[in-house]
């Protein structure tokens, strides 16, 4: 990822940041943003976008990609950091930046201060490190996507953490006070203390153990489970009280694996107190003891809280608030039963689905054609085909139009009379009927033709000008061939 050097930030002009913002906007739907698209988005007053891009690549704020087929630019982590820092500085949230005080598998921690000299903490999310790359298995940032940019995933993590921190702080939980966020950076108040993993002696161990277990239960009663409740995410202050940090992985108590996450958090604390302080208590909370008091998982959109669960909860709340007389309920039930009976009767009278109607129409058309062929032509029908005709006739549902119906006795009599006249000539006729409706066949043909036209258009499409890496490569090869030919002749 590299270290964050903010020294060049003061020397960048407004046009440089416009070019950086143009790359960021282009990366919404481009992996590598072409130079002409960046210049059109930036729309610099005096032009010279290419010069600005070269200056950004010099400071490693942007990366120029020269691939096999495409040439363009993409944002680096430092460039994304500069955009976030400039946004926070323009809002007078931060004025200076200090040293790096911590690092982890998902983020870096820096000390910052505002115009008044108040010390704060800046957390920069950096997803994609080699120590933590299985984000699709551990988090739900991808949603239904298979791949996504690490920068975009870092932004989602920062938004989720700020939302959790704000909701918990408003309800009085021991968490840092959130101040502001921009892109993948979150600014919060600085907590004075030490991580619990660095503490080796405590005056009152049972009281601290009880406080941690109460915090776990209180979070679960509000609908949230921390998911990473261990000694590395707990800060012990000077007053021997705990402050909870690190929130992107929080899940809802309605999550399918909520009980497993809750039991894991409890086990982490019990094992730590047993190893570090030689303290083991028989009292510990279980997931069945949770009684919901609030819906923080709904307000923060925690993972595991689906729309179906939300609808069920709303229905349950409505049932609790409704107070109706039993007579009215009985009358409503009678009305609903009568409506259901009417609906079932109408469904019996009508065909069940359009597919059944199509099949019945096709079979009726087949029988009509077969009778017409028997009347006008001399054909030979085998006994197996006779049975098929009778079975098809039995399958057809009764229709109100009696004129279109044909009796089985008439079919058999006509088949017998025609069989006697056609045995001498031994003429055979076969009829094939497709069960696929003609509308589906036409739709498939149109779809296939559309695909063929798209293939032809792709072959004709050629990237021209500076954006064509293929043409650039061909030109370089031609120049090399000319140089070698010159030396060969010489």
Automatic annotation (TrEMBL):
Keywords: ATP-binding, Cytoplasm, Kinase, Magnesium, Metal-binding, Nucleotide-binding, Phosphoprotein, Ribosome biogenesis, Serine/threonine-protein kinase, Transferase. The keyword ATP-binding applies. Its EC number is 2.7.11.1. Residues 336-350 have a biased composition (Basic and acidic residues). It is found in: Cytoplasm. Coiled coil: none annotated. One of its GO terms (cellular component) is preribosome, small subunit precursor. It catalyses: L-seryl-[protein] + ATP = O-phospho-L-seryl-[protein] + ADP + H(+); L-threonyl-[protein] + ATP = O-phospho-L-threonyl-[protein] + ADP + H(+). GO terms for molecular function: ATP binding; metal ion binding; protein serine/threonine kinase activity. Its cofactor is Mg(2+). It holds the Pfam family RIO1. InterPro entries: Kinase-like_dom_sf, Rio2, RIO2_wHTH_N, RIO_dom, RIO_kinase, RIO_kinase_CS, WH-like_DNA-bd_sf, WH_DNA-bd_sf. CDD domains: RIO2_C. It is an enzyme of class 2 (transferase). It comes from the Eukaryota. Associated with late 40S pre-ribosomal particles. Interacts with PLK1 (via its N-terminus). Belongs to the protein kinase superfamily. RIO-type Ser/Thr kinase family. This is Serine/threonine-protein kinase RIO2. It comes from Oedothorax gibbosus.
């Amino acid at each position: 990822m590299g270290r964050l050097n903010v020294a060049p930030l003061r020397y960048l002009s407004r046009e440089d940041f416009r070019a950086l913002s143009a790359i960021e906007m282009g990366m919404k739907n481009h992996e590598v943003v072409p130079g002409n698209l960046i210049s059109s988005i930036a729309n610099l007053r005096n032009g010279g976008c290419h010069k600005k891009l070269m200056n950004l690549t010099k400071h490693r704020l942007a990366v120029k990609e020269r691939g096999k087929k495409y040439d363009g630019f993409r944002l680096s982590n430092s460039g994304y950091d500069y955009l976030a820092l400039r946004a926070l500085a323009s809002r007078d949230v931060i004025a200076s930046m200090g040293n790096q005080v911590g690092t982890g598998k998902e983020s870096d921690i820096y000390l910052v201060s505002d115009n008044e000299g108040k010390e704060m903490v800046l957390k920069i999310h950096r997803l994609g490190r080699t120590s933590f790359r299985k984000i699709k298995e551990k988090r739900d940032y991808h949603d239904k996507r298979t791949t996504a940019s690490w920068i975009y995933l870092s932004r989602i993590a920062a938004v989720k953490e700020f939302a959790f921190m704000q909701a918990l702080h408003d309800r009085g939980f021991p968490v840092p006070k959130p101040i502001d966020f921009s892109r993948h950076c979150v600014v919060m108040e600085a907590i004075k203390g030490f991580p619990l993993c660095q503490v080796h002696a405590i005056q009152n161990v049972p009281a601290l153990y009880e406080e941690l277990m109460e915090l776990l239960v209180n979070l679960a009663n509000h609908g949230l489970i921390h998911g990473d409740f261990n000694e590395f995410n707990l800060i012990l202050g000077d007053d021997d009280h705990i402050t909870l940090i690190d929130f992107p992985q929080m899940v809802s108590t309605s999550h399918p694996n909520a009980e497993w996450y809750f039991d894991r958090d409890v086990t982490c604390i019990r094992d730590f107190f047993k190893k570090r302080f030689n303290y083991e208590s028989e009292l510990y909370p279980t997931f069945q003891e949770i009684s919901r008091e609030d819906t923080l998982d709904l307000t923060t959109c925690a993972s595991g809280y689906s729309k179906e669960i939300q609808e069920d909860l709303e229905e349950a709340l409505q049932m609790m608030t409704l107070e109706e007389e039993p007579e009215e309920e009985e009358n409503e039930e009678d009305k609903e039963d009568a409506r259901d009976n009417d609906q079932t009767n109408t469904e019996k009278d009508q065909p069940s689905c359009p597919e059944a109607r199509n099949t019945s129409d096709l079979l009726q058309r087949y029988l009509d054609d077969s009778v017409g062929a028997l009347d006008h032509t001399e054909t030979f029908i085998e006994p197996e085909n006779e049975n098929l005709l009778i079975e098809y006739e039995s399958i057809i549902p009764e229709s109100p139009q009696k004129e279109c119906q044909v009796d089985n006795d008439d079919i058999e009599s006509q088949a017998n009379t025609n069989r006697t006249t056609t045995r001498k000539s031994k003429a055979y006729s076969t009829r094939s009927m497709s069960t696929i409706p003609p509308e589906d066949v036409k739709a498939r043909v149109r779809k296939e033709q559309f695909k063929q036209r798209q293939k032809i258009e792709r072959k004709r499409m050629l990237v021209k000008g500076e954006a064509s890496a293929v043409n650039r490569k061909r030109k370089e090869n031609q120049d090399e061939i000319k140089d070698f030919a010159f030396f060969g002749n010489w």
